[in-house]
Design goal:
This protein has four helices and two strands; from the N terminus they run ββαααα. With 72 residues, the chain is mainly α. It has a two-stranded antiparallel ribbon with strand order 1-2. The chain is elongated, with a radius of gyration of 15 Å.
């Protein structure tokens, strides 16, 4: 799931983030900080880099049908 980051939407640009990912950096966070992040994530888990790669690969593999999304 992609969520909108930030609450100030006064300009027309939106920033999207897949959320916190399971990486070396997130593993180094304290348990208290991890729990704080997990409390803000609907699925109550961190995403994986594999999930992000699937999300990127899907529209790229259907270029003729997703050209509007990928700018092809």
């Amino acid at each position: 799931m992609i969520s909108v980051v930030g609450s100030d939407m006064t300009d027309s640009s939106l920033n999207y983030s897949p959320g916190v990912m399971e990486t070396e950096l997130s593993e180094s966070l304290s348990e208290k900080i991890k729990q704080a992040f997990l409390g803000m994530i609907p699925g109550r888990r961190f995403g994986t880099t594999e999930e992000v790669s699937h999300a990127v690969a899907f529209p790229a593999s259907w270029q003729d049908r997703t050209s509007m999304w990928i700018g092809a």
